Amino acid sequence: MAASKKKTKKSHTPATDADGRPLLYLAEYDTPADVMHAAEKVRDAGYSRWDVHTPFPVHGMDRAMGMPDSKVGWIVLAMGLTGCTTAFLLMWWTNGIDYELVIGGKPGFSIPSMIPVMFELTILLSAFGAVFGMFGLNQLPRHWHPVFFSDRFDRCSDDKFFISIEAADPEFDLADTRSLLEDTHPTNIELIQEEVAQ
Amino acid sequence: MSKPKKKSAAKGESPKASKKKAEAKSPTYRIPADSPWANAWKVAAAFGGIGLVASIFGMTSDPDRFAYSWLFAFMTFLAVGLGALFFVLAQHLTGAGWGVTLRRVSEFLMSGLPVFALLFVPVFFNMDRLYPWLEHGEHGEAHEEEHGDGEHGDGEHGDEHGEEAEHGSWLGLGDGTAQAQDPRDPWDMHPDEVAAQAAEHGAEEHGEHHDPEHQLHGEILESKNWFLSRGFFLVRMALYFALWIAMFWFYFSNSTRQDKEKGKLAITKRMELLAPVCTILFGVTLTGAAIDWTMSMEPSWYSTIFGVQYFAVSAVIAHAVIILITMGLRRSGLIGNAVHVEHFHDIGKLLHGFIIFWAYISFSQFMLIWYAGIPEESTYYHLRWWGGGGFLNLSVIMILAGFIVPFFILMSRNAKRNLPVLTFGAAWVAVMHIVQCYWLYMPYAEQTGLVATSLRLHWLDIASLLAVGGIYLAVVFWNMTRYPLIPVGDPRVERALHHEVV
User: What's the pLDDT band for A29 if we cut at 50, 70, 90?
Assistant: First the structure.
């Protein structure tokens, strides 16, 4: 319990169950509309470390969750420009300045022959930026997460909709968070706690 | 926070979508008689009329320039009609739900296609000015008559070189003197190599025409005779227009009939069933038209990607014009919220994608020709690059303002979702489309020998643009007053109204 108090500054209420440190609240809903309205409430309550789990993309969820613009685009732009200039500088230096090879009767430094390479490297690094940037921003791969301890959560890939609020969130409070979630009319609320060795 | 309002939204859809639905239900999607759009076709027709009168005057005073100006204007606007046809076909081909509300504007743009059959008349009467192969073709036909089967007449043309040298200008190569005055290799890279190559060919025959490429090009043209002949050209022309008009009619009449027979699925099914065939026919006819009406202006030149190039041009301009017109209708409140930011975002993505596609294709064509440096292939770029001044600058402008600028304007997601920015980008693309077509067609009007020496904007260019554009848009705007502005009877229209990019 001491640990939990340190982590959660507003945790005045003791846990009902003495199993272990609370990790996460998991609220379950039947329809995408329910989970969307619930997400709006959680967003407005100012939570930051929380997520919505649905079996399929729900249109408008980004807005309901108050998600800011993805930063992936900026990563891709930076990577793309890096690729473009790297290719340019490499070819300009190697074949234009340092060691000119005449190929096809063209000058060493000729932009038309450099464009395909500049294009390819732009695309390559942009794609890397997009994929690995997405991984990084999503903190993937993640092999451990409290939601995995819930048996009900399996149905997230089938027909149920979930909202999870992590105990690590500064706004998290065992009683307040539960009452907030109860206000959103979930079909079930589950508190996931750390397992303690007996 | 407007939570209570949001909570009242119907279940199963986002609050914003349901709000949209409420708004979108109200308009009738028809142009009321007092709207400026109701009279747009008259304005367009007036401009068209002025342009037409001026063009007819120009036809008598400067028939050469008129021929090129008209073809330039014709191909500039034909690209809009064909691109719009492609958009409609692509919608049915993919069974897309998102673009249903955008489709009708595209159908209006496509509905101007039959007019181009009439607008082609001046091109038809000026074929001899525009298409140098005609002279050669006639010659070839005469030859055929003499020697029976023309296809086997290849061995004969050796005798003709003396004759060919006389009308050498149509080869786009100039005569020997012009060649001597301009000894530069097209790309100024290795003139020695080219000279050596030329000497090699020239060694076979030293006559008064010491231009060895003459022979080469003569042979190339001989081999194209079966294709580039007046009769076959006209048959193909008839075929293109027949197929385009048939496709326009099929899709336009079915789509507008569905407005009345609300939600009749069979019509959608029928349109989707024919979409693959029509797409193939569209690709073949567009490629053929690009080759016949544009590439054959320089008959010894060839580029296997040229049809794709013209397709890219059409796709880009059609998406830009669809955005501009839809945006205008939305501003006037005629389509309510039937087309909203989510649709504009999606079509903006397509526009951006096609700009990249266009640049990719254009560069692919250039790259191969530049790299090989074969004389008969280089003429196309040589014409536009080495004339000094005008078209060289225009070539650079095409790269910067035609690709780089719109690429960055439309790159960001926020830019595409910001309607004024998207409008600006689409307008920019539309202006650059005209510039590009000018770059494509007008060098032939300014051609001296191997190069286009000057870039002079002639009043006939403007007059032809007004004539063709005015007449075409008059038909488009007139059709807009006759039918609903979105396909209200499409079974997927509800889905399109609620379209949302995740």
Answer: very high
Instruction: Give the separation between CA B455 and CA B482, rounded to whole angstroms.
Output: 42
Poorest-pLDDT segment among A93-107, A127-141, B131-145, B304-318: B131-145
Q: Is the pLDDT of residue A12 over 80?
A: no
d(CA B299, CA B94): 37
Please answer yes or no on whether B17 and A104 come within 8 Å at the CB atom.
no
Q: Rounded to 5 degrees, what angle do the CA atoms B401, B405, B411 make? A: 150
Contact B502 A116 (CB under 8 A): no
Rounded average pLDDT over B413-430? 95
**pLDDT score of B22:** 45
Q: Give B14 to chain A, closest Cα distance, Å.
A: 6
pLDDT at B371 > cutoff 60: yes
Helices B265-293 and B306-331, interaxial angle, to 10°? Answer: 130
Least confidently predicted of A32-46, A139-153, B26-40: B26-40
Would you list the domain boundaries of chain A?
22-69+147-193, 72-137
d(CA A174, CA A167): 8
Q: For A120, which residue in chain B has the nearest alpha carbon?
A: B360
Rg (CA), chain A: 25
CA distances to B34, B49, B113, B373 from B474, rounded to whole Å, are: 18, 10, 12, 45
Chain mean pLDDT for chain A = 86
Cβ B316 vs Cβ B430: under 8 Å? no
The more confident residue out of B292 and B33 is: B292
Angle between helices B40-61 and B63-94 (to 10 degrees): 140
Distance, C-alpha B190 to centroid of its chain: 35
Distances (CA, A) of A186 to A17, A24, B332: 21, 15, 44
CB A168 within 8 A of CB A49: yes
Over residues B394-414, the mean pLDDT reads 93
Integer Cα distance of B119 and B441 in angstroms: 17
DSSP, collapsed to helix, strand or coil, labels residue B452 as: strand
- Judge whether B424 and B323 are in contact, CB under 8 Å: no
Distance from CA of B390 to the nearest CA of A (A): 21
3-state SS assignment for residue B169: helix
Lowest mean pLDDT among B80-84, B109-113, B153-157, B440-444: B153-157
Q: A22-69+147-193 adopts what CATH topology?
A: Alpha-Beta Plaits (3.30.70)
Interchain contact, A112 vs B366, CB within 8 Å: yes
Q: Give the integer Cα–Cα distance in Å for B15 and B9.
A: 5
pLDDT at B27: 65
A30 token code pair: 């039947």
Of the candidates A178, A35, A79, A128, the one whose C-alpha atom is nearest the C-alpha of residue B14 is A35
| B13/A64 Cβ within 8 A | no
Cβ contact A177:A8 at 8 Å:
no
Comparing CB atoms, the residue among A40, A41, A73 nearest residue B413 is: A73
Q: Could you give the strand order of the β-sheet that contains A22-29, starting from the edge strand earlier in sequence?
A: A50-53, A161-166, A22-29, A188-193
| Contact (Cβ atoms closer than 8 angstroms) between residue A35 and residue A29 | yes
The share of chain A scoring above pLDDT 90, in percent, equals 53
* Highest mean pLDDT (candidates A14-28, B188-202, B257-271): B257-271
Which residue type sits at B40? A
